[in-house]
TrEMBL record:
Protein name per UniProt: Uncharacterized protein
Organism for this UniProt entry: Streptomyces montanisoli
Amino acid sequence: MEQMKWEEALSRVEDECDCCIAATGPRREQNWQQDAVAVMRREVRDPRGWRTIDDCACAHEASGNPSFPFQSPDAEKLAENTYPITIDAATSLLTLITDQWFRVSNFVNSGKNRDLLLVDARFILARYGPDAQMFTTSGDARSTMNPDFSQSAQAGHSFSNYIMEIGLIAVSDTEVGVFWGFNAD
C-alpha cells in the first residue's frame, strides 16, 4: 500500500465530508475497543505517520475536551454499541459517512460521485488487510452482518452531542481505523 495513493483517496473523501473524523492508531490490546477509544481520545498517532481527517480539531481545542466531539468514549460502550459487518457493507458505509444525513439521494444534489467514492473507500479500507474485521454503530447492523447501505444508513448509538452520527471501525492485527461522520446541524 502506497502512502501517497492512500492519502489522496482519504483527501477526496474529506472533500466530500461535512463533519467527519478518520484516524488510525496502533493495535496494542487484545480488546480492540480499547485501541479504538485511544484513537477517539486522540491519545495515539497513526503508526505509519500517515495523515488523518479531523474536522473537529479546532472545536476540541476550544471545548477543552480532548476527545471532542466524542463524549467520554469507553471500551464497554463501544462493545455494547458496535456490530460486525462485511467489508462490502463497510465500503458502502464509508461513502455514506460523507453525507450529513447518511443518504445516497443527497449525493445528486451535492454533486458527489458515489462510484468514485466507492473506489476510494475500497482503497482506504484495503490498508487494514483482507482479514480485517469491520464494525459499525449503525442500527442497520443489529440483525445482519451485511446490511444494505446502498441507499442510506440508520444512525445508531450516539457517542457525541450531535444530532446524528455513524461510526465505522476497521480492526486488523496491527492497526485500528476509526471513521466517523456527524450531522452537526
